[in-house]
Design brief:
Blueprint: H1 17-30, H2 43-50, H3 54-66, E1 70-73, E2 77-80, H4 95-100, E3 105-106, H5 119-133, H6 147-161, E4 170-173, H7 176-187, E5 193-198, H8 202-210, E6 214-221, E7 224-225, H9 227-236, E8 241-244, H10 258-271, E9 274-279, E10 302-307, E11 319-322, H11 328-339, H12 344-355, H13 358-384, E12 390-392, E13 399-403, H14 410-417, E14 422-423, E15 425-426, E16 439-443, H15 449-470
Parallel strand pairs: 3-14, 5-6, 5-8, 8-9, 9-10
Antiparallel strand pairs: 1-2, 4-11, 6-7, 10-11, 12-13, 13-16, 15-16
Helix pairs in contact: 1-3, 2-3, 5-12, 6-12, 7-8, 7-11, 13-15
Keywords: Aminotransferase, DNA-binding, Pyridoxal phosphate, Transcription, Transcription regulation, Transferase
Protein name: 2-aminoadipate transaminase
EC number: 2.6.1.39
């Protein structure tokens, strides 16, 4: 297995893991590390080595065969092709890459389109900050962040979400992923247990695993986690940390009921664990504004992290942590050793935008844009989606979670629809062990509102073809289920 130690997988990439493994093996072939006729590792052994599902390796090996790089011999295994065909000797794109170049309906990407960025507001604010602060705008700030911005965030939290915060416990970070990583380093030791929702955000799981934590999944229901399952697993072994996205969860779009939020807080106090709340898009609500879990935290058990990537501009790399006062010093130390401080200029600009309310004006605008998309998407799914497929309607955010009938897998659907110019996110991606999932995520972030209905029509037709090819399920025209 020594030849495969250089394989690096990006679990945050929208590109499926099996495609990444295929690419890495092709690289090893082209570099002469793997020789013609050489046997590839057994599926289970390579899967264990790369910490992926065996199905992922199967799909990677199948793609190698299809592209002429490998051959499968019954009873013997998979081997590098002895005589690589002419096309295989050249650097070529795999099927998925070729099709991604031709994507027409992008229902996978979660980032905000550049045309929605408040460029003019930001440009004006930069000029004013530079006129005001001169060269000081480029100096290092203290590690917790630019003090005036932390004061603005303190006011923002109370005005918007009734969260009483102290600026001394607010730490500016370079995006949510860094915030999760900082908290992991500050709280977790090797062997600690972390509970996560199932499914969940893979970037958080990777951060916890990097600390040697044991990951325990808790099933999501339509109003939040399964409380009976949670209590049972807590009694077996309480976690050190519970990671949650209680409003407009990624990938399911689910929001916790107020009762479940309060129950989770109560359990954290009773059993002595902490909660990491990831508020990735609480501002994108389409009816009633939900309160973060932190708003119910009278016991100081919640680490609250908020990113501005989904509502402002992802390239700013700005977010912040609100942490229990007992942990503020260690969080500041970990942040300092991570990157000393986040961009001082960007912090000053964001502070000015918040103080002068242009930030709030942008939130109102972006919420209105996505509300219109959300309405079109919901109507289109109800109208076109074939009946064996279920989906839930989120109350905010960007994501819809759709599930195929039992026995069908979203990775196989993904492979088919991407050839038709439709980009979806397979559910495998959102489970710690990358297990095959019948569910998949659709995002309204990138696809233009004028193309949503047409895109869902095409996707629904492709799903009908997919289901008919592999079963005799009678397919009606449409179906809607408010539950997962």
């Amino acid at each position: 297995m020594d030849k495969f130690v250089s394989i690096q997988l990006d679990r945050n990439s929208p590109e499926p893991l099996y495609v990444q493994i295929y690419e890495e093996i092709v690289r090893l072939i082209k570099e002469g590390v793997l020789l013609p006729g050489e046997k590839l590792p057994p599926i289970r052994k390579l899967a264990a080595n790369l910490k992926v599902n065996t199905v992922t390796i199967v799909n990677a090996y199948k793609l190698l065969e299809k592209e002429g790089y490998a051959v499968s011999r019954v009873g013997s295994g998979t081997f590098i092709q002895s005589h690589l065909k002419e096309s295989a000797d050249l650097p070529v794109k795999n099927d998925s890459e070729l099709e991604i170049d031709k994507i027409r309906f992008d229902f996978a990407t979660a980032s905000v389109p550049p045309e929605y960025f408040p460029v003019e507001i930001f440009k004006s604010s930069i000029i004013r900050v530079l006129d005001r602060d001169g060269g000081y705008a480029f100096a290092y700030n203290e590690s917790p962040g630019f003090l005036p911005l932390r004061q603005s965030l303190e006011d923002f939290l109370y005005e918007e979400y009734k969260i009483k915060a102290s600026r001394d416990n607010i730490h500016v970070v370079s995006g949510a992923q860094q915030g999760i990583d900082i908290i992991s380093k500050a709280l977790l030791d090797y062997g600690d247990t972390v509970f996560v929702e199932s499914p969940t955000y893979p970037g958080a799981v990777d951060a916890f695993k990097s600390r040697g934590a044991k990951i325990v999944e808790i099933t999501l229901r339509d109003d939040g986690i399964d409380m009976e399952e949670l209590l049972s697993k807590i009694r077996s072994k309480p976690p050190k940390l519970f990671y949650t996205m209680p409003n407009f969860q990624n990938p399911t779009g689910i929001s916790y009921s107020e009762q479940k939020k309060k129950e989770l807080i109560a359990l954290s106090k009773k059993f002595g664990f902490y909660i990491l709340e990831d508020d990735h898009m609480n501002d994108l609500y389409y009816s009633e504004k939900p309160l973060p879990l932190k708003a119910y935290d009278e016991e100081n058990r919640v680490f609250y992290i908020k990113s501005f990537s989904k509502i402002l501009m992802p390239g700013l790399r700005l977010g912040f942590l609100l942490v229990p006062s007992d942990f503020s010093e260690i969080i500041a130390e970990v942040k300092y050793f991570s990157d000393i401080a986040s961009s001082g200029l960007n912090q000053r600009v964001l502070d000015l935008m918040i103080r002068e309310k242009s930030f709030y004006d942008h939130l109102t605008k972006i919420r209105r844009i996505y509300l219109e998309k959300w309405e079109i998407m919901t109507d289109s799914l109800k109208k076109h989606l074939p009946s064996p497929v279920t989906f839930s309607v989120p109350k905010g955010g960007l994501f819809y979670w759709l599930c195929l009938p039992e026995g069908f897998y979203s990775m196989n659907l993904y492979a088919g629809v991407i050839k038709k110019g439709i980009f979806i996110m397979p559910g495998d991606y959102f489970y710690p062990d990358q297990k095959p999932s019948p569910c998949f995520r659709l995002s309204i972030a990138q696809v233009p509102k004028e193309m949503i209905n047409e895109g869902i029509e095409y996707l629904s037709h492709a799903i009908r073809e997919f289901l008919k090819e592999f079963s005799f399920i009678p397919i009606k025209k449409s179906n809607y289920s408010p539950l997962l």
